[in-house]
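Annual report, structural modelling task.

Input specification for the fe (ii) ion complex:
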Amino acid sequence: MSNCNALFGRLQTQHLAVNNLIQWGDHLSVEDAAIDAQHKAIFDLGASVYESWRGGGGVEVLRPAVDKLANLLPAHFAFEERMLTDIGYEDLAQHMAEHRGMLDELGSMQERFHSFEDGHESPGGSLLAPGWPIMQFLLGFTVGHVMSSDMSYCQTLIASRVGVRGNA
Ligand SMILES: [Fe+2]
Ligand SMILES: [Fe+2]
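The model returned the following structure:
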């Protein structure tokens, strides 16, 4: 019984942890309203994918989310890269390489999701939990990229504005 309770406790904790990781909040602000809004839209999509995933949503439910992500992400990356170019961000090349890696990964995932028919999720291969690769990808974006790499340009961005004001 205690094992059971411990497991339940762990699952609850994991649920809360994942929920927190895909929850956008002011602590994730990069001090740019447009970029914050774009990040929030992607985090919100993550939260809805998480709900679908927990509810056992199949490919037909999750595929539109992957497609939406495939619209939001390239647009966001292009916008961010333009801004980072404008402020002369010193780690731009590395940052763009991270973006590129994520787009490649997303492209493969989208292709995979379109190769599965609704309700037939394992033609030749198995996609036991179709939501899992999207969750992994989204966590890679939220925790792996926004919380670390994007937060890293925040200081340069703020400094560039001070510089602009100072020169004005
Ligand atoms: Fe980025
Ligand atoms: Fe970003």
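The mean pLDDT is 85.
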